[in-house]
Amino acid sequence: MDSIFVNSKNVFLDTVNVKDYIQLDRVSTIYQSLKDSIKKPLKMILLYGKPGTGKSMFLTKLYSDLSEENNIYLYQTPILDENEFYKTLAQDIFNIKYNDELNFTQFMKIVKDKKTKQTPIILLDEAQLYSEALMEKIRLLSDTRSIKFIITLHKTEKEDLIAKEHFKTRIWETIELVNASNSELKIYIQKKLMKANCFDTANMFSTKTVNKIYKLTKGNYRDTNKLLYTLFDIYITYEQSSHIYPFNTTHIPNKFVEMAAIHTGLINA
Ligand SMILES: Nc1ncnc2c1ncn2[C@@H]1O[C@H](COP(=O)(O)OP(=O)(O)OP(=O)(O)O)[C@@H](O)[C@H]1O
Ligand SMILES: [Mg+2]
Q1: Separation of 108 CA from ligand 1 center, angstroms?
Q2: Are residues 33 and 69 in the same domain?
Q3: Which residues does 72 contact at the CB level (< 8 Å), separation at least 6?
């Protein structure tokens, strides 16, 4: 049987899987407002935030919740080639297969001619990777109001500027995702562990320990995942040689958290 530390470690693998989604108060408020926005006649919705704030997770959850009722498509990996982009959309939305080229003008014609019962919703993750040229076409497609785009973007200063340029003149809604607060971080860690039936390790995260983690990760979900993955790795190492170090499982030694932080580069040794 796997040890509780092995199971706990795997909880913090950096993966985006809808079954791992955790409901956090602040996020669910944002989530509700996004769901409302989708119903409005907005052309585009922009979801932005620093790396590791849960944008991909959020988008995946949205997709999973809406996919039964809506005409909705999720592209987690950007389709960088313009032709491929239109071809993929034509195939997915209108069920039209193109073996040859499909350029923007041709695709635009399809969009205008083919009527869909419901406006298709296109979710584009990692939109900072799309070229300026393709983003412009996406905007033009949005203008037809025949397709609705929801895009996510990393927020760095430069990209913030791009976002402003891109959307200045559009009817759009922006939603920002941020790091967890101290108390949200505790809920995040404990819920994640409890979801995987790791109740004992969930109980190890006292407010004091979480405060320490918060100081190191600023509540960033990805950094927290990395830190805790490494922390449980350290536990596994000690467990395998437990005659050396008689540790208890009710309290996490600060030293362990610090060691994990050094390993993950959150503090410099
Ligand atoms: N609500 C949540 N429930 C469960 N896990 C979450 C949640 N939000 C974030 N995570 C975890 O945090 C990690 C980072 O989140 P995510 O990949 O969605 O960030 P991101 O904002 O898309 O980052 P990037 O800008 O680098 O693409 C995920 O792998 C996931 O494990
Ligand atoms: Mg992402």
Answers
A1: 34
A2: yes
A3: 63, 66, 120, 121, 122, 123
